[in-house]
Design brief:
mainly alpha, 9 helices, about 65% helix, elongated
Amino acid sequence: MEKIGYQDVNQQVVQRCKSGEHRAQYELYKLYSKAMFNVSMRITNDYAEAEDVLQEAFLSAFRNMHHYKGEASFGSWLKKIVINAAINAVRKRRSELVPMDDRTVAEVPDEVTEDDSEWQVEQVRRAIQKLPDGYRVVLSLYLLEGYDHAEIGEVLGISESTSKSQYSRARKKLLEIMKEPQFMA
């Protein structure tokens, strides 16, 4: 039985980019820049910083195209570069993960009992932007980017249980923010 390998739909553009064709770089930028900007924006929560991260990530990707082996989509490879660049930008801001106290994950109540299906997407997006950096990064990586807690721990240099705690607290804080009067209207 013949094994069928993964083939990226943009493989030809990627190959042209690997050979140093600038027009191919521009094509890849046009294909992925909006999605990657959104990823960057969710993590940095700052428009100008997200743009800087985007530029830095694309430059890094183009400089390191020879490392892309085509085992996954170019988009997922690029997304990892963007996420790492965004996390580094947040760290440069000297943001802090919300200090951990002595509680463990099991002690953090999982009290989401209200019907929160009435929340609108825009309200949730605005509330996520109000979260402290540490909470927002973990919440975004887990809920929006699909990372598991072990992966988040690896990326952020924290333990898996710390990631779970941060996520749990981020959810709680998010609900508190969404109950503020400006979000209830």
